[in-house]
Amino acid sequence: IRMSHGTVITGIATSQGRIAGQIKVVLTTPPTIPADKSIRLETVTDGEGRYLFTRRIPPGSYELRAAVVGAASPDSEIFQQLLQLKRSSTIFTVPTGQDVVEHNLNVPAAN
Fold it and tell me: How many CB atoms sit inside 10 A of residue 51's CB?
């Protein structure tokens, strides 16, 4: 039996084209995947905008989204973050046998 070890997802997330730390990046399977087989991972960028999901994922189609995490009260930012997550959404495919997939994201203005 030969088992695949999965793929690491990494990249750079920017806010309006600029490097920023503390951007939350969310990886999910498409909504068509049954709940018992779905994946949802979250991470936060470092000070240089880099992110890395340490859990390896199997080949397939995934959605990446991002939102800026600010220092203000989370209650006052929730609607802005939801809008950023929606606007930054991008679908990408992880091919079979790929060890690392790099995918960059940009969080557009939420106005």
Answer: 23
DSSP states along 65-78: EEEE--SS-HHHHH
Please write the tens of the pLDDT for every residue from 19-54.
888 899 999 998 888 888 899 999 999 999 999 999
Instruction: Write out the DSSP string of the chain.
Output: ------EEEEEEEEETTEE-S-EEEEEE--TTS-GGG--EEEEE--TTSEEEEEEEE-SEEEEEEEEE--SS-HHHHHHHHHHHHHHT-EEEEE-TT-SEEE--EEE----
- Give the list of residues 6+ apart from residue 68 with CB closer than 8 angstroms, or none: 15, 20, 22, 23, 24, 81, 84, 107
Tokens of 81: 């973050």
What is d(CA 50, CA 83) in angstroms, rounded to the nearest whole number? 22
pTM of the model: 0.86
According to DSSP, residue 30 is labeled: -
